[in-house]
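Methods: holo model generation. Sequences were used as deposited, without trimming of termini or removal of tags, and paired with ligand SMILES retrieved from the corresponding compound records. Each pair was processed once, and we did not select among multiple samples. The sequence and uridine-diphosphate-N-acetylglucosamine SMILES for this entry were:
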Amino acid sequence: MSTPYLLIAAGGTGGHMFPAQALAEAMLLRGWRVRLSTDPRGARYIGAFPEGVEIVEASSATFARGGLAAKILVGPKIAAGVTGMAAQMMRDKPDVVVGFGGYPSIPALGAATLLKIPRMIHEQNGVLGRVNQLFATRVAQVACGVWPTDLPEGAKGVHTGNPVRAAVLERAGAPFIPPGDYPMSVLVMGGSQGARILSDMVPGAIAALPEAVRDHIRVSHQARDEDGERVKAFYAEHGIRADVQPFFDDVPRRMSDAQLVISRSGASSVADISVIGRPSVLIPFAAAAGDHQTANARGLVQAGGAIMIPENALDVPALTQQMTTVLTNPEAAQKMAHAALSVGTPDATERLTALVEQLAQKETS
Ligand SMILES: CC(=O)N[C@H]1[C@@H](OP(=O)(O)OP(=O)(O)OC[C@H]2O[C@@H](n3ccc(=O)[nH]c3=O)[C@H](O)[C@@H]2O)O[C@H](CO)[C@@H](O)[C@@H]1O
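and the model returned the structure below.
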């Protein structure tokens, strides 16, 4: 029997590349040949992919960036990408094609659709991205990171969850130490790029906490480079112990140690919080396409695991109040941690790999 062969199409942002990497790792371990079709932006993330994944750069384009000349060239570029990919696939036919959204996934999904190669997509967010919207009814199924996700009529949705890193899985359901009369950790994170609004609001909200709470707080605060110095200075002036960095490489450990997480609700951030199981205050990024960060947060909030503050309602008093509710109420915090865990999908990668294997079997049966 020949080695089964998976083509993964992903690129653009880390948000598409992280789950693609998790699937690539898992399928290699299962003895599959794995190839990644990506773009120059996605190429920044391939260093983290395991050795053995073949990389191919596909021509694609987006209407979202560039001037008129660039926009006029979008159609021909995409057509060239699809044609080039179709020619490759005719020579070297994948058993399954999986797209993770974003413009770079168009050539592989387009070619697989033309050639009727078994294919599916994974959507990380609670609202379908534009490219996934285009292919949702042209694939065998839409694997959804967030459940429920609104799908167009005729699309078949399957809940897989969003794959999380191994370091997150190692801490899945790690015992939660409820807040109390001892050092307490608060993790503040704004997603892969950080978030200015959290640097504007969180330090003031912590400074305004009741003294008995504030004196016990240790903050890990992810702040963009340009905000780092003022955030550090504010914490220092107010005698608050804080570690301020543009990006924490050890988020899984910091999250596991935290009594409270204050975060944007990007897909992987929400997945990490629910797999480790920690109380959180979530502030969805209001400008996200289709308001998908609100959709991402909904399941966790409805389960009672998180408090959501919409960006337009976010101010220092509101944040102080919600932080106080969690940090002065150990029972409520413990309940939130449990509730968060109840919506976590630590087996998201396995669920995805099972779908890929089923698709390949359907093809051969
Ligand atoms: C601004 C924006 O449009 N963001 C989108 C982007 O999210 P973005 O890439 O910002 O965020 P995600 O929440 O999906 O992923 C961030 C990941 O980085 C980790 N982390 C974060 C901070 C840090 O210091 N260290 C660290 O390791 C988090 O734990 C998480 O695992 O793609 C996601 C998936 O399509 C979308 O849901 C988001 O809406």
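The pocket of uridine-diphosphate-N-acetylglucosamine is lined by residues 13-15, 124-125, 189, 191-193, 222, 247-248, 251, 266-269, 272, 285, 288, 292-293, 296 (CB under 6 Å).
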